Amino acid sequence: MVIDCGDCPLRKLEGFQKVKPDELAFLKRFKVGELSVDKGAPILMEGANSPQLYTVLRGMGLRYKLLPNGRRQVVNFVLPGDFLGLQAGVMGEMKHSVEATTRMVLCVFDRSELWTLYKHHPEQAFDLTWLASIHEHFLGEALTSVGQMSAEQRICWGLLRFHERCNDAGLADGETCPLPYTQQDLADALGLSLVHTNKTLTKLRNRQILAWRDGYLRFLDREKAETSAMLERDTSRPRPLI
Amino acid sequence: MVIDCGDCPLRKLEGFQKVKPDELAFLKRFKVGELSVDKGAPILMEGANSPQLYTVLRGMGLRYKLLPNGRRQVVNFVLPGDFLGLQAGVMGEMKHSVEATTRMVLCVFDRSELWTLYKHHPEQAFDLTWLASIHEHFLGEALTSVGQMSAEQRICWGLLRFHERCNDAGLADGETCPLPYTQQDLADALGLSLVHTNKTLTKLRNRQILAWRDGYLRFLDREKAETSAMLERDTSRPRPLI
DNA sequence: CGACGCGTTGAAACTCGTCAATTGGTGTGG
DNA sequence: CCACACCAATTGACGAGTTTCAACGCGTCG
Q: Using CA atoms in the order A32, A36, A40, A42, what is the torsion angle rounded to 10 degrees?
């Protein structure tokens, strides 16, 4: 029933680092079970201090912050391989919420073992810092996108990055990948209104740059999309997987 | 000439964690010298793989990304106590540039010792993850600000956060703190045009909310500023200082 | 003295947000 | 089986916030 870390389907993918046998042994002990949640379910709440850490095995979700005025910022989309709860692990509480967009399956780790990890498994400790840095990098790029780019550029940027991450997670099929979110989710991620997001998507579709229908995204003219998004070259090496 | 880590003036401040004697001994070995740079000088460049890591001792700077179209996103302001170069340390290259806004003095650390830190000093390793998480948190908040707030709200948010950080660094005097940046710097940080930033600052000054003149920022009505910024309560505990 | 950087101000143009209404699909209860 | 509610996507109209363009003042520096 519960997947053995040694057989983890994610680790077989190219985008993730290989792991040494003794490190694997620790991960097996670190993992205390699996959690399956329904579409729409909350996973972590802002301000809470979760006793558990998670790695996404299957499904998609999103991280977001709610403002007192009711507005919402989607901080990023959550895909298989993502590690959840590290902020609470080191800072004492979550700074954003996480909820499931589709049904999800999560590996559950015991947070009280986190210190053991730092004490006896420096490789994994390094990996955790790496993961935090990757997030920092992504958020810096998102900030740049929202701060400096037009609606069309932001949408191209956001969807290209998403497709790239789907690819890493083994979910993309050529230029096509699943995109189970609503236009409102995308709008909240890019700092745009729903209406303007919809109209800009229509333009991109009419200009044969991309299509998004029935939960699937497809790039028809990746060249144009990338030019619009001003993407920095991707120098990512295999990511750690905890 | 060179400050001994044991006498570090920053560590005496309340906002930073105390450190155990054996940890201090390692920091002393880790520190290889001090670097003094002039106003306007580049410190780290995007894409570069710096062999050194820095902690700011004195002075201020800014982190930024440049876009192909010439626009600039200021990712954040750099104050004493900030650690620079961690991204290059774990990910292999910097994802943004850092430059000095005033004259600055930096502690220099040897990056090749980073692995020693993870291997033999788990407390410090944990602290590095913590620092990365703090950045992640800050960038998430900045993204939310730029994505969801009006010009006035963003400016209040940015300047309040800056004042708070000055306070932690022992640079604030009541409601006043130094602010050696240009309006263009602030505009680029908040995703606003220079002109609109200027006009909004004028409004805030006329409404007696804040004043920014001659390199110093002063809050006249903090209450109103905080309401405008929708600041989340600050739950920060003493930060690690490397 | 002139060049330059920074702050300031006015006017015009435009992107984008808000309001409002419609469509189509899905699920639920009578 | 149909009525109804509900949600996501869509479209039009209008207005507000923001950007862009342009010009000027002021202090500093060579």
A: -20
User: How many CB atoms are located within 10 Å of the residue A185 CB?
Assistant: 19
| Strand order from edge to edge, sheet including A210-213 | A176-178, A216-219, A210-213
Which nucleotide is closest, CA of B185 to its C1'?
C6
- List the structure tokens of A2: 């519960």
- Hey, are the CB atoms on B140 and A90 less than 8 Å from each other? no
Please report the number of interchain residue pairs, chain A to chain B, with beta-carbon separation below 8 angstroms: 140
Average of pLDDT values for B66-73?
A: 96
Residue B233: pLDDT band with limits 50, 70, 90: confident
A202 touches strand D (CB under 7 A): yes
End-to-end CA distance of chain A, in Å?
20
Q: What sign results for the dihedral spanned by CA atoms B75, A189, A169, A174?
A: negative
Residue type for position A90: V
A103 half-sphere exposure, CB direction, 13 A CA radius: 2
CB A151 within 7 Å, strand C: yes
Single pTM value for the model? 0.96
In this predicted structure, what is the pLDDT of residue A234?
75
State the Cα–Cα distance between residues A100 and A242, nearest whole angstrom.
Answer: 20
What are the pLDDT tens digits along chain A (242 aa)?
Answer: 789 999 999 999 999 999 999 999 999 999 999 999 999 999 999 999 999 999 999 999 999 999 999 999 999 999 999 999 999 999 999 999 999 999 999 999 999 999 999 999 999 999 999 999 999 999 999 999 999 999 999 999 999 999 999 999 999 999 999 999 999 999 999 999 999 999 999 999 999 999 999 999 999 999 999 999 998 777 777 899 99
* Single-letter code of the amino acid located at A87: Q
Under 8 Å between Cβ of B143 and A72? no
For A201-230, letters b (16+ CB in 10 Å) and e give beebeeeebbbbeeeebebeeeebbeebbb
Instruction: State pLDDT tens for residues A37-56.
Output: 999 999 999 999 999 999 99
Q: How far is A19 from chain B (nearest CA, A)?
A: 17
At A191-211, the pLDDT tens digits run: 999 999 999 999 999 999 999
Question: Among partner residues A126, A135, A230, which is closest to B69 by beta-carbon distance?
Answer: A230
Phi-psi category of B38—alpha, beta or left, where left has phi over 0 and alpha has psi -120 to 50? beta
Structure tokens at B71: 């626009």
SS3 of residue B211 by DSSP: strand
Residue A164 backbone dihedrals phi, psi, to 5 degrees:
-60, -45
Q: In this structure, is the CB of residue B202 within 7 Å of any atom belonging to strand C? A: yes
Q: Which element (helix H / strand E) includes B135?
A: helix B122-148
